[in-house]
């Protein structure tokens, strides 16, 4: 029986898969993300998702692997995770009162038949105009640590956002509807049907 492996240590992605009742294990995937920063953001997240999936595939056999990578893009420039508090402050100041995009690349690898599916999702996000006090208050909560763009929509970061256009779960880090479609292509039927390749993982 094939098992499902999430190629990520992200607690947010783990929680999203648990939310839809998926049974899986986690394996970390170390990839040099900066090596691909010359690519268009959409191509970048797909490339990194594929690289993460391959990193895990090299350590396991006959499984379904889910990998993802998320970036925040402002004016076609990728905003990575903050280096420190000051960098987070600068990122939030740039995002204040403006629209940006959150892009997530997803790759699902089926090791049994040596096939894979890769896509990416885009969500538009609008920040309110933030005061210096609001930015400092958000920095004080520490939620910005290890977050692309320096914020997390699933926490206090929700207070910074005026509206979004697109998939909310994409902004969290894993667009569930897109993932469902990719899993379906690989014989993992989360809403009925019978997986022809004997995949286990849905309860």
From TrEMBL:
<dbReference type="InterPro" id="IPR029001">
    <property type="entry name" value="ITPase-like_fam"/>
</dbReference>
<keyword id="KW-0546">Nucleotide metabolism</keyword>
<comment type="function">
    <text>Nucleoside triphosphate pyrophosphatase that hydrolyzes dTTP and UTP. May have a dual role in cell division arrest and in preventing the incorporation of modified nucleotides into cellular nucleic acids.</text>
</comment>
<dbReference type="GO" id="GO:0036221">
    <property type="term" value="F:UTP diphosphatase activity"/>
</dbReference>
<feature type="site" description="Important for substrate specificity">
    <location>
        <position position="12"/>
    </location>
</feature>
<dbReference type="GO" id="GO:0009117">
    <property type="term" value="P:nucleotide metabolic process"/>
</dbReference>
<comment type="similarity">
    <text>Belongs to the Maf family. YhdE subfamily.</text>
</comment>
<feature type="site" description="Important for substrate specificity">
    <location>
        <position position="154"/>
    </location>
</feature>
<dbReference type="GO" id="GO:0036218">
    <property type="term" value="F:dTTP diphosphatase activity"/>
</dbReference>
<dbReference type="GO" id="GO:0005737">
    <property type="term" value="C:cytoplasm"/>
</dbReference>
<dbReference type="InterPro" id="IPR003697">
    <property type="entry name" value="Maf-like"/>
</dbReference>
<feature type="active site" description="Proton acceptor">
    <location>
        <position position="69"/>
    </location>
</feature>
<dbReference type="Pfam" id="PF02545">
    <property type="entry name" value="Maf"/>
</dbReference>
<protein>
    <recommendedName>
        <fullName>dTTP/UTP pyrophosphatase</fullName>
        <ecNumber>3.6.1.9</ecNumber>
    </recommendedName>
</protein>
<keyword id="KW-0378">Hydrolase</keyword>
<keyword id="KW-0963">Cytoplasm</keyword>
<feature type="site" description="Important for substrate specificity">
    <location>
        <position position="70"/>
    </location>
</feature>
